[in-house]
UniProtKB/TrEMBL annotation:
Segment forming the signal sequence: none
Name of the protein in its database record: Choline transporter-like protein
Pfam family, one: Choline_transpo
Cellular component, GO, one term: plasma membrane
Lipid bilayer topology: Multi-pass membrane protein
Keyword terms of this UniProt record: Membrane, Transmembrane, Transmembrane helix
Statement: the UniProt record of this protein carries the keyword Metal-binding: no
Subcellular location field: Cell membrane; Membrane
Function text: Choline transporter.
UniProt GO MF annotations: choline transmembrane transporter activity
Transmembrane segments: 12-39, 59-80, 87-106, 112-132, 158-189, 311-332, 338-360
Keyword Cytoplasm: no
Organism ancestry: Eukaryota, Metazoa, Chordata, Craniata, Vertebrata
Family as reported in the entry's similarity comment: Belongs to the CTL (choline transporter-like) family.
Organism: Rhinopomastus cyanomelas (Common scimitarbill)
């Protein structure tokens, strides 16, 4: 519910969303920290001489929560204090993204369809796994139970099944990214918004099925090639825990970390490659090369605009998790006699973050697609007759402000002007 409310807020008040979100997160963090310390002091003062082990555990958990919330609030406040000058750069993209959701309301429901398809596939995968588990010859063991012992190639079929799980799951997520990219690209490069297709989402799905399934399959397969070795290394690290020496443990963790970073970079590049495919209808490798060139040419803007936008959406997720966790604390405060607080709150906050991520990741995709469209638009157009911009007026104002800031900083020798240098 909180995720849907935040999506509505993003849609209708995108101009002031960044500032509202910043203030709410600061107030929420301060309020949540104060409530935690108040509950801790209240329980400690009302504690009786004979305390149960559950009451002691709850009191210790409250102290840990309060200290963690205090440290988190201080770090969050310092980060937002440092990034306050760049908040204005995000408002333009957020405003245009709000207009996208206004014209394409079906984008809000993309997490539902993706989750539904993933559930269907995971159900099928588990069913096949159960069939594989009972494939072979039934043989009674020494304890009187029956085991199904597989011989030949069937023993290694579960490896193929695991690879299929990772690849097809990534394929379904990539289809969502391609669908969102196609719809947003259609919106951006349509000068007259009244001439948009009746259902840009369905039109994007139709183009995906007819022309771009190979692109999506190749992109998801590249992610699988990185994810599978990382999973194998994590399995080896788990099996050898406590047995390997310090050097081997350090090397394993370093390899796992490097593969994780490579996976994140490839995922981001793939998403921009899908956007380039939606714009130019080129194959995956050509689109990935074009997207990489655009991102390198706009490295400072990627850092200044895209990262700040993602950070603001992360703050939205934090706001949802804090609100949900605070509600859980207030409810569990009246059930202190028979429940342990740690595990329920961890589960509540985990699921709250996952749900918020599913919804706000759609907005994050829209902002990323808009940024790449904006970069391509400014690369091939300059606003002159015959080369008019496709961008929204808000982004045009941002370009003009960037040029003015660059000129002023050029006269003053400031660094901010170099950061806003237009292409």
């Amino acid at each position: 519910v909180l995720s849907m409310i935040l999506m509505v807020i993003i849609r209708y008040i995108s101009r002031v969303l960044v500032w509202i979100l910043t203030i709410l997160v600061i107030l929420g963090s301060l309020g949540g920290t104060g409530v935690l310390w108040w509950l801790y002091a209240k329980q400690r003062m009302s504690a009786s001489a004979v305390e149960t082990q559950i009451a002691k555990d709850n009191l210790q958990a409250l102290l840990i929560y309060a200290i963690s919330a205090t440290v988190f609030t201080v770090i969050l406040f310092l980060i937002m204090l440092i990034m306050r000058k760049r908040v204005a750069l995000t408002i333009a993209l957020f405003h245009v993204a709000g207009k996208v959701f206004l014209h394409l309301p079906l984008l809000v429901f993309q997490p539902f369809w993706t989750f539904f398809v993933l559930i269907l596939f995971w159900t099928y995968w588990i069913t096949v796994l159960l069939f594989l588990g009972t494939t072979g010859s039934p043989v009674p063991n020494e304890e009187g139970f029956v085991e199904f012992r597989m011989v030949g190639p069937l023993k290694y079929m579960w490896w193929y099944h695991v690879v299929g799980l990772v690849w097809i799951s990534e394929f379904i997520l990539a289809c969502q990214q391609m669908t969102v990219a196609g719809a947003v690209v259609t919106y951006y490069f349509t000068r007259e918004k009244r001439n948009l297709p009746f259902t840009p989402i369905l039109a994007s799905v139709n183009r995906l099925v007819c022309y771009h399934l190979g692109t999506v399959a190749k992109g998801s397969f590249i992610i699988t090639l990185v994810k599978i070795p990382r999973m194998i290394l994590m399995y080896i690290h788990t099996q050898l825990k406590g047995k390997e020496n310090a050097c081997a443990r350090c090397m394993l963790k370093a390899c796992i970390c490097c593969l994780w970073c490579l996976e994140k970079c490839l995922t981001y590049l793939n998403q921009n490659a899908y956007t380039a495919t939606a714009i130019n209808s080129t194959n995956f490798c050509t689109s990935a090369k074009d997207a990489f060139v655009i991102l390198v040419e706009n490295a400072l803007r990627v850092a200044a605009i895209n990262t700040v936008g993602d950070f603001m959406l992360f703050l939205g997720k934090v706001l949802i998790v804090c609100s949900t966790g605070l509600a859980g604390i207030m409810l569990l405060n009246y059930q202190r006699d028979y429940t342990i607080w740690v595990l329920p709150l961890i589960i509540v906050c985990l699921f709250a973050f996952l749900v918020a991520h599913c919804f706000l990741s759609i907005y994050e995709m829209v902002v990323d697609v808009l940024f790449l469209c904006f970069a391509i638009d400014t690369k091939y157009n300059d606003g002159s007759p015959g080369r008019e911009f496709y961008m929204d007026k808000v982004l045009m104002e941002f370009v003009e402000n960037s040029r003015k800031s660059m000129k002023e900083a050029g006269r003053g020798g400031g660094a901010e002007g170099r950061e806003l240098k237009p292409m």
